[in-house]
Structure formats: structure tokens, C-alpha cells
Amino acid sequence: MSTTIAKPMPRHAGALLEVNDLKKHFPIKAGFFGGTTGHVYAVDGVSFHIEKGETLSLVGESGCGKSTVGKALLRLFPPTAGQVVLDGQRIDDLSQGKLRPIRRRVGVVFQDPFSSLNPRMRVKDLLAEPIRNYGLAKDSADLDERVAKLMDTVRLPRDAVNRWPHEFSGGQRQRICIARALAGEPDLIICDEAVSALDVSVKAQIVNLLQDLQKELGLALLFISHDLAIVEHMTHRVAVMYLGKIVEIAPRRELFSAPKHPYTEALLSAVPVPEPGAARKRIVLKGDVPSPINPPKGCRFHTRCPYAFDRCRTDEPQLQQTEPGQWAACHLHDLPAVKNPLARSAPKLAS
Amino acid sequence: MALLEVENLQTHFRTPDGGVNRAVDGLSFNVEAGQTVAIVGESGCGKSVTSMSILRLIPEPPGQIAGQIRFNGKNLLDLSDREMRAIRGNEISMIFQEPMTSLNPVLSIGKQIGEALRLHQGLSRSQAEAKAVEMLTLVGIPAPDKRVKEYPHQLSGGMRQRVMIAIALACNPKLLIADEPTTALDVTIQAQILDLMRDLKHRVGAAIVLITHDLGVVAEVAERVIVMYAGRKVEEARVEDLFRAPKHPYTQGLLGAVPKLGSSLDGTSERLAEIPGLVPSLKQKLQGCVFASRCPQVTELCRTAAPALEEKAPAHIAACHYAVKEAVPA
């Protein structure tokens, strides 16, 4: 058996956010004494970085751990292991008190705009709360001015600040959620399925708004989504997760035109395209995602992989660089190119 | 005669404040035997209410259904509850969006598939179980003779949706209504279920009314498409025509608002087309065109006179004053 040791991903010292080998295992308690009988390996060693002003998308199916990554970064629960470095400072081991000023720099927008706004607070209080919390306003006039500016930023009328959340539609509420995320003047916004619950026409409005804000404010986005078409539309780079691991991470064009991991390839081929009669080769994966309580040995994808061979069942593949900037965790790339069905590279951009 | 003829369907709901919500307001369409018709639109356009109305699953009151729904020539709205029960799950059956909540958690899946068979076809318990195993094989569930004794919580989301399809198809229905059948599923599982539906359509020959908001799913499965907006049909066409040359500004807006896979390759990933504004409230009777408040090409005529559904190209109808007649080949 060949034992090529893949070179590890390089460190990215200048990046805005750097995540190294992040793990989050949830204990399973059972029995009368509540003893731990096992773990859910929700996130099991994930590394990536985000540059300033860049969008990185985390994609994958339900239960792959993409939302857990977002929540661990926000320290909504403590990570089990690994490092999170924001702008050169480690934040994964800070105490809650020390973390507070850092929280300002990372905003978050959740999926459901109906449950993420307190129905008993007016819009102006919803927006003023984070500004007060972080002590950003000098006086109450400044506070009002900041709230009004936030409304302008998300293209809502200023006079809507006295209204209640229930008076707004889903898309407008999501704008309020974005305004709240922007209140602390963050460098990074984590969008956890932020447009998934919205209707098609409203979704387009919010996607355009996020792209505009990114340009205006130089924001970095961590865009967690399962909608690959939206991801392709708005991202710079993509990380594909499967069962708690990143299986491929690559710039947008490379990933969508020449995926280097069989799971990415299958995922892309499964997306229905709004084009009747489009001739496409569809790879329909057999079976379901295995349980993250007891992930398969070797490559976690080998139980559903159409190309799996012996080595996949025993050796776990590491991320290796296949093209500049494109990393994939697959043993196929150790084979000679003629035997590798994923060897082709992205077509050159016709200019 | 078409298998299903819906004529001027109006499903209204009385609201607690004394108003009326016109969820479906004068909808007409036909479904031929063996055909797949998709109804698309955004939340609140009335597509699910339409499907519930066909099966008379709308509680009355507060709901009120008017118009005609003719199935095999019989108006379903004239039938007694008893006669209606003989049709539900037998000649017309339905697949719901949420496979998690639509199955009974305390009955084995064999019992749930067998229920309709015993009720409608008078099978004995053992015959029903044998048929249930057959149905599970049909929908591609491995080890069906073991699975038939299991309960819904033992199955994954995709498996549960397969069970839902098995239940719906158990009595060989002539019409299958699928209300967002793949919306709650992951893409790889969605691909499996869409493949299954296409395959079963050829084998079973049932007509399908597919309710969805996903234009990708429509393009893959449907033969004819009805676009609904604010309780009305705004456009209807064969699937190729609709995607190639949409006539109604709303349909054009919808198609422009969806990013396509591969957009990064041809360098077309520009801004998405937005449809400004919001769906109008269904509580007032709308004057003029339903889309007037959001339409980029709106004129005074649109605000005052409701456009009629006209044939703008062969087998392609749209309700717009300014839609060009006759298709322009792309």
C-alpha cells in the first residue's frame, strides 16, 4: 500500500479568520447516572481561512456539521479542540468576559427571520440593543443616528423603526437581522442558511443586498448554505463538508467546473437545473449519509462513493493540493492520471 | 375529456376580523391522463390551497370552495363526504412535503401502507402486508420484508418520503398530487426521489400534479407548467416554451431571480434580477392586473383592467396586456 503523506494545508498568517483542526464532539448521555455512552462527531477536524472582504461558503447536506462550525466560531458552545484565530488573536480559549469585545467583530444572520427577532421589541430597540451592548454610541442622539444609518444600509425606510417585527414580511425581517448583525461594525458575518427560508424573488433581493454590503463595507462572509446555485453565484471560495470533515476546498470556478472530490461531483450533478431537457450526466448516490456517531473507517465517503477502492476503506485521505488553491481529500489523486476520473482541470476562462 | 378539469375554482377563507382571504381566485386548468403538470409560485400564491381543494381537505368553514372540480367528469364538489372518502387515497392520492410529520409514528409502515388497501380494496391483513412489501420494493427500499415491520422513526428522511410515495401509489391512483415532495430533502436524496418519481410515472401511468416553488424540479419533471401569482393563474405553457420564452413579466422575473449552476464558468454571474416589492394582500378584491404593483412594464391600463388569459403562442397562455403574441424562436 502506498503511503504518500500529503502535505498539510499551509498556515495563513495574514488572514482575517483562521481555523485550525476545529473539532466539536457532542457527548451522548444515557442511563440513570447520565453516563457518556458515545459521541456525535459533528465537526471532526476542520481547517480553513477567510481573507478580509472574502466570501467563503460552507456547503453540504443536513448533518454534515456546517452549522456546528458556525456556532463553534461564534462560541455559542465551546469547541472540543482546535484553534480559532481572528485577526492574529486566538479566540477559542478566551473567557466569556474577554470574548465580549471580540463578539462585536463577528456578526451572525440565522435562517429563520421569524424566530430570530424578539416579537416584543420594536425595530429601533432591536437595532439599538447591540449598539448599547458594545458601548458604541456616545449619547442617545448618536444612538438614534446609528440606528437610522443601519436602516439606510439595509434599504429599509427610516420611519419603520417604530414598528414591530410582525409588521414586516420575511424578506424585510431578514433585512432587520442583517442590520442587527451590522450594528457592531463587524469584519466578518456568518450567514447560516440566511436566504434558505425566503421565496425566490425575495431571496434574490437579499443575495444582492449581501453582495452590495460586502463591496461597500469590505465585509468577509462565511456563507453556510445547502443551495449550490446561490453559493456559486455569490462566493469566492467554497468548502464542501461531509460527515464533519472538509472533503474539498477550492476557488469557485475550479470547484464548480472541475470538482476534485467524488462527493462534490455527485452533489453538483444532483442539483436540478432550471433548463428543460438539459443533457447532464447525473450521479445518483446510493443510500443515505452514515451516522456521525459512528462514522465509517477510512474515507468517510467510501460507503457511497462510486469510485471507492480497497485503500478507501482503511486509510483516511488527507486534504492535498490538486490544482493551485484547490484541495481535496481523496485517494484518487494518488493514482496515475489515466486511472483518475477526476483528473481534468478547470477550463481556461474564455475572455 | 381530461382526467381532471378545474374550472373557475375559488377557495376563500373568512378571516376572524370579518374579511375574506381570496387564496385561490378563479383558477381553471386541465390535467390529461398520464400527464405531469407543475404548479409553481411563491408562498401564499395559492398553489397548496389548490391541491387541498381538489381533495376537499379544506375545512369548511372557515374555507369555502366554489367553482367546479371535475374528475373523470364527476364534480367532486357535489359528492358527499362518504363518496369523497372512496376517492381519496384510492383514485386520487397525495404526497405531502413533510415526511416526518405526515406518517403516524405509532404504526408500523406496513400497517400504514396496508390501511388504504384494506379500506379501498378489501384486502385481508396478510394480503395487505404482502402488497405492502411489494410497494416497498417498487419504491426501492432495501430489505422490504424487514422494513415493513419498522416504524417511521427508524427510517431516514429520504426513506420516509419513499414510504409516503408507496402509500400514495398503493391503490394505483389515476391522479397523484405531490405537494413539494422534495423540498424538505437534501439534494442527493432529492435526486433519488425525482428519479424514482420519473421512473414510477412510466411504470404506473398516473397523472401527476406537482406543486413546487423550485424551478429546477419543474424543468426536470414536468410536461406542462402553470405559474400562479396571488391566487390566480398568470401563465401556462409547455415546459420548454415556458423556460425558453416566458410571456408574463412575473415568470420572466422568477426565471431571472434564480442563479443557474455554471454561472461562474461563462462569467455571467452578475446581479440577480430582483422583483421589487411584495405580494399584494389577498384580502381586498384586486382591481386590474394582480402583478401591477411589482411589474416593471406597468401602465395605467394594468391598474384598472385585469388582463384576460389569452393564447399568446400555440398552447401558451398568459394574462398580460403587453405580452407579445407569437413566440420568437431563440
From TrEMBL, chain A:
Checking Gene3D superfamilies in the record gives: P-loop containing nucleotide triphosphate hydrolases (3.40.50.300)
User: How does the UniProt record describe the way this protein sits in the membrane?
Assistant: Peripheral membrane protein
A single GO BP term for this record reads: transmembrane transport
- Record keyword Nucleotide-binding present: yes
Q: Which domain of life is it from?
A: Bacteria
Q: Which Pfam families match?
A: ABC_tran, oligo_HPY
Q: Which is one GO molecular function term here? A: ATP binding
- ABC transporter domain segment(s): 17-268
Its keywords, alphabetically, are:
ATP-binding, Nucleotide-binding, Transport
Query: According to its UniProt record, which protein family does this protein belong to?
Result: Belongs to the ABC transporter superfamily.
Name by which UniProt lists this protein:
Peptide ABC transporter substrate-binding protein
TrEMBL record, chain B:
Q: Keywords in alphabetical order, please.
A: ATP-binding, Cell membrane, Membrane, Nucleotide-binding, Transport
Q: Mind telling me which InterPro entries this protein's record contains? A: AAA+_ATPase (IPR003593), ABC_Ni/Peptide_Import (IPR050388), ABC_transporter-like_ATP-bd (IPR003439), ABC_transporter-like_CS (IPR017871), Oligopep_ABC_C (IPR013563), P-loop_NTPase (IPR027417)
Regarding the membrane, this protein is recorded as: Peripheral membrane protein
Set out the biological process GO terms recorded for this chain's protein.
peptide transport; transmembrane transport
Presence of keyword Mitochondrion:
no
Q: Which residues form the ABC transporter domain?
A: 4-255
Where does the signal peptide begin and end?
A: none
For this record, the Gene Ontology CC terms, alphabetical, are: plasma membrane
Major site of localization recorded for this protein: membrane
User: Known Pfam families for this protein?
Assistant: ABC_tran (PF00005), oligo_HPY (PF08352)
Show the GO MF annotations: ATP binding; ATP hydrolysis activity
Look up keyword Transport and say if it applies.
Answer: yes
Q: Where in the cell is it found?
A: Cell inner membrane
The record's NCBIfam families line, in alphabetical order, gives:
oligo_HPY
Task: Spell out the PANTHER family in the cross-references.
Answer: DIPEPTIDE TRANSPORT ATP-BINDING PROTEIN DPPD (PTHR43297:SF2), OLIGOPEPTIDE TRANSPORT ATP-BINDING PROTEIN APPD (PTHR43297)
Tell me its family. Belongs to the ABC transporter superfamily.
Its name, as the record gives it, is Peptide ABC transporter ATP-binding protein
Organism this protein belongs to: Teichococcus deserti
